[in-house]
Amino acid sequence: MGKYQKLKRAQILAQKEEEQMSDVDMLSEESSSDSEDEADKKEEKKESKWINRERVLVFCSRGADFRARHLMNDMKAMMPHAKGESKMDKSAPMNQIAEIALMKNCTKVVYFETRKHKDLYMWLGNISDGPSIKFLVNDVHTMKELKMTGNVLKGSRPVLSFDATFDKEPQFALIKQVLTQTFSTPNHHPRSQPFIDHVFTFSITPNHRIYFRNFQMCDETLQLQEVGPRFVLHVDKIFSGAFEGDVLYENPTYLSPTESRKIMKQKKADAFQQKKRQQDEFKEKKIKIEEAKEECYEDPVGEMYDTNLLIEDKEAQGIAKVIDGRIVKRISKKNTKMAKKTKKAKAAKAN
């Protein structure tokens, strides 16, 4: 009987162990399913918050000067949703920019193009359907160059402030939409921070130039301090596609840098020619004056007022003597005064 009792006990223990193992497997399956459900819920929450998935590609062409490169780095630091890329060759077609942006999973592009190592152009474009805008960039001042007192936290989201003139003309309204889509940081972006502490201002001048400034909001009273960078945009053309297509708008007041330099050189040349003309005219006048001096003219009045003639009248001789005596007295008085002054000066130096 003892052997059978031991076998029964072993069978009962084995059944209990099997039941415990099955319970553990069920709990592990339930916990894994719960964890998967929680992860799916978190991803859904992230996707629901991060709706705007705009990414901006910021890069430049080869041959860019130091100021253009520093401005590009400032733009990358200002926009947490920006991505970088190596420099593009100037000989490459502009259509290649759209392909590079698609490879980088970007929807917007900020491309800095330099010509003649001194003229800087900035292209803003939408890769999907366009449009793309070409600006001439003037008066560039980078953050390291300015050294302003303002300071902003990295990754913070900006407030975009536009001038009222952006809504008055259709080309500026289109530019406003492109600027907002490019410079505004998407809400709940992974690289962005959940606070706002600076302002991007875009203002239009009477000569249709767009001024960009970056200000820090210091406190709740909304006092502003400039951070930098600064630059001025002059609109050249607006294209319908992504760096290609029909020209939607062409600025009639736009002058290329080569044309403006040509006008300045022509003004300098005109000023030099005018100066040479004045010098030639002055020489001609001088020659005419010398010729006139050399010519002899009769002077009928000179004999009447000749002072070297002898005076024969006695009364006239007396008057002449009185006048000469007075002149001599005046000269002697002046000489005595000068002598006294010199004596005093010598005495003061000797003391």
From TrEMBL:
Stretch list, region Disordered: 14-47
In what ranges is there compositional bias, type Acidic residues?
20-38
Q: Which domain of life is it from?
A: Eukaryota
Question: Mind telling me which InterPro entries this protein's record contains?
Answer: Brix (IPR007109), BRX1 (IPR026532)
Per the record's keyword annotation, is Nucleus included, yes or no? yes
Biological process GO terms, please? ribosomal large subunit assembly; rRNA processing
Brix domain location is 54-244
Spell out the subcellular localization from the entry.
Nucleus, Nucleolus
Q: Which UniProt keywords apply?
A: Nucleus, Ribosome biogenesis
Cite the Gene3D superfamilies for this sequence: Probable brix-domain ribosomal biogenesis protein
Q: Is Nucleus among this UniProt entry's keywords?
A: yes
What is the role of the protein in this entry?
Answer: Required for biogenesis of the 60S ribosomal subunit.
Record's protein name: Ribosome biogenesis protein BRX1 homolog
